[in-house]
């Protein structure tokens, strides 16, 4: 099973690419939170507000008021608060299921259920971007997702620039255990110089994070470095519009 899953992930990376040209007028950075734990709002929210930054929260309706990795997950009230503050809400399936475990009809049912759940709580809000739970992607999932969302964000590291797959947008993990291995200044500088789009994903935010989380200090530092490099910081959906909007305008000219 493990080898088959690895093959399916690899196939999704190289096959059935949905090409789009990422060409913003200046370098971009986007921050997203997956699942999301309460601390992604209670701890990260004030930092984002202080920095004047909007992020994307990828939501699984089935996790509301539950636990994941032994952490309390978001509440409806927190979801409504971050939406009111201007943050984007994106889809992460309803039950936080790997798409490798869902066939086409099951994935479609999960997406439909999550869409209804969010719309009922956010006055008809329609999610336009998706993030793969666990970073797992498959060819079947890409086929299901491409007609439903503007893009799907993965977990493969790298700068999005030039020809990219809109169903597998690159992103780096902001786990505190991994951040020392990144040359963050160089990554931000590359995005600025090459006019590319750098995205990051996070989970819990705490002074004692899980292996998948980061500290408030780490979060603040990443955002400060992005600003210092001159990157425009936008939620995933808005950044995508900025990336492909100039291409659309050129094609229409």
Secondary structure elements and pairings:
Blueprint: H1 2-14, E1 19-22, E2 28-35, H2 39-42, H3 44-51, E3 56-59, E4 67-68, E5 71-72, H4 76-84, E6 88-91, H5 104-121, E7 129-131, H6 139-145, E8 151-153, E9 162-165, E10 172-173, H7 184-193, E11 197-202, H8 216-228, E12 232-233, H9 236-252
Parallel strand pairs: 2-3, 2-11, 2-12, 3-6, 7-8, 10-11
Antiparallel strand pairs: 1-9, 4-5
Structure, explained:
There is one protein chain. This protein has one domain (2-252): TIM Barrel (Alpha-Beta Barrel), CATH 3.20.20. Helices cover 39% and strands 17% of the residues. The protein has helices at 2-14, 39-42, 44-51, 76-84, 104-121, 139-145, 184-193, 216-228, 236-252; strands at residues 19-22, 28-35, 56-59, 67-68, 71-72, 88-91, 129-131, 151-153, 162-165, 172-173, 197-202, 232-233. Helix 3 (44-51) runs parallel beside helix 8. Residues 246-253 have low confidence and may be disordered.
Strand segment count: 12
* Poorly predicted residue ranges: 246-253
Question: In the CATH classification, which architecture applies?
Answer: Alpha-Beta Barrel
Oligomer: single chain
Give the SSE string.
HEEHHEEEHEHEHEEEHEHEH
Under CATH, the homologous superfamily reads: Glycoside hydrolase/deacetylase
Q: Approximately what portion of the residues adopt beta-strand conformation?
A: 15-25%
What structural class is derived from the secondary structure elements?
Answer: alpha/beta
Report the average pLDDT across residues. 94
Rounded to an integer, what's the Rg over CA atoms? Answer: 17 Å
Q: Any idea of the CATH class? A: Alpha Beta
- The number of helices is 9
Shape: globular
- What name does CATH use for the topology? TIM Barrel
The percent range for helix content is: 25-40%
* Total tally of structural domains: 1
**How is the main sheet built?**
6 strands, parallel
């Amino acid at each position: 099973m493990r080898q088959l899953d690895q093959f399916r992930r690899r196939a999704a990376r190289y096959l059935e690419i949905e090409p789009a040209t990422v060409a913003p007028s200046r370098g971009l950075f986007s921050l997203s939170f997956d699942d999301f734990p309460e601390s992604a709002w209670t701890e990260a929210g004030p930092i984002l507000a202080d920095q004047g930054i909007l992020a994307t929260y990828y939501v699984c309706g089935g996790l509301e008021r539950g636990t994941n990795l032994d952490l309390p997950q978001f509440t409806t009230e927190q979801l409504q608060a971050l939406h009111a503050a201007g943050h984007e809400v994106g889809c992460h399936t309803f039950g936080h299921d790997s798409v490798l475990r869902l066939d086409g009809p099951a994935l479609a049912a999960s997406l439909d259920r999550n869409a209804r759940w969010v719309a009922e709580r956010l006055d008809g809000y329609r999610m336009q971007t998706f993030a793969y739970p666990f970073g797992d992607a498959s060819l079947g999932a890409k086929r299901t997702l491409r007609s439903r969302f503007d893009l799907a964000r993965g977990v493969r590291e790298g700068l999005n620039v030039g020809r990219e797959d809109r169903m597998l947008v690159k992103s780096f993990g902001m786990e505190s255990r991994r951040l020392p291995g990144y040359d963050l200044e160089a990554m931000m500088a590359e995005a600025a110089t090459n006019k590319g789009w750098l995205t990051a994903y996070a989970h819990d935010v705490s002074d004692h994070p899980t292996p998948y989380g980061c500290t408030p200090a780490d979060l603040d530092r990443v955002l400060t470095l992005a600003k210092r490099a001159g990157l425009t910081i936008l939620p995933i959906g808005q950044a995508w519009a900025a990336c492909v909007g100039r291409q659309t305008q050129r094609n229409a000219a």
